[in-house]
Amino acid sequence: MARYENIVILTGAGVSAESGLGTFREEGGLWAKFDPMKLATPEAFAADPETVLGFYNARRANLSDAKANAAHFALSALEQDWMMDGRSDFLLVTQNIDDLHEQAGSASLLHMHGELLKTRCSQCDHLFFDREDMAIERPCPACTKAGGLRPHVVWFGEMPLGLDQIYQRLDRCDLFVAIGTSGTVYPAAGFVSEARRNGAHTVELTLEPGEISGLFEEHHYGPATETVPYWVRGLG
Ligand code: APR
User: Fold this and answer.
1) Which of the residues are catalytic?
2) d(CA 203, ligand 1 centre) in Å
3) How many CA atoms lie within 13 A of 93 on its CB side?
4) Are 1 and 16 in the same domain?
5) What is the pTM of this model?
6) Distance from Cα 39 to the centre of ligand 1, integer Å
7) Which of 167, 181, 176, 225 is nearest to 196 (CA)?
8) Shared-domain flag, residues 7 and 33
9) Do 176 and 210 lie in a common domain?
């Protein structure tokens, strides 16, 4: 097995599915139950903040019982081994807004779609950890004004976070791994092409083939709690 030095891992909702957190586009997924255009856009928040905040408060409450699973822990262990081996670079990019990678101990972690357990004031940009319910009348702890608190989550039409850092790492990675993502939302769905362009070996770990599966050289299909620990064990 080749020895890789610079790894970028991308995770999606599938890595948290076995922790009881729903995915988006599967049968019965979140976007089958709720209209993202009415709940996950800046326009929706401006038009009906109570409904949008209620949706994210419910998702935040749902997170309190969720626990990291074997896939999250395998990725955290891989990061520690990787760095102890003196390899150059490890970056875990997640599209997920849950805190399960943190629970498992991942440190080199970038939430490109934000974090559900953080609240941001859209009036003064104050950002803080928050497990309470967001409400339009709740004053911002920094500027003390009400009316601006929103989830620190990237909505449709907003720029994902950390793209400069992600593309820098993709440009020099020799191993790119996508776990539990349907590959339907850009720019994340385009990361595999970026990595291939730079000669990286590309691996997909997901339940079944998806829209971008043909772009990966190596595939492991099945539940993440089985495929991720298996793949990590086999990594040279
Ligand atoms: N193990 C591994 N993969 C799984 C599992 C599992 N137990 N269960 C589901 N999957 C796979 C599905 O096969 C699918 O490919 O996870 C993927 C989930 O796809 P989506 O629901 O589209 O989630 P994701 O790819 O993370 O969506 C990307 O879209 O709406 C936005 O911001 C949202 O971050 C999200 C982005």
Assistant:
1) 113
2) 16
3) 27
4) yes
5) 0.97
6) 19
7) 176
8) no
9) yes
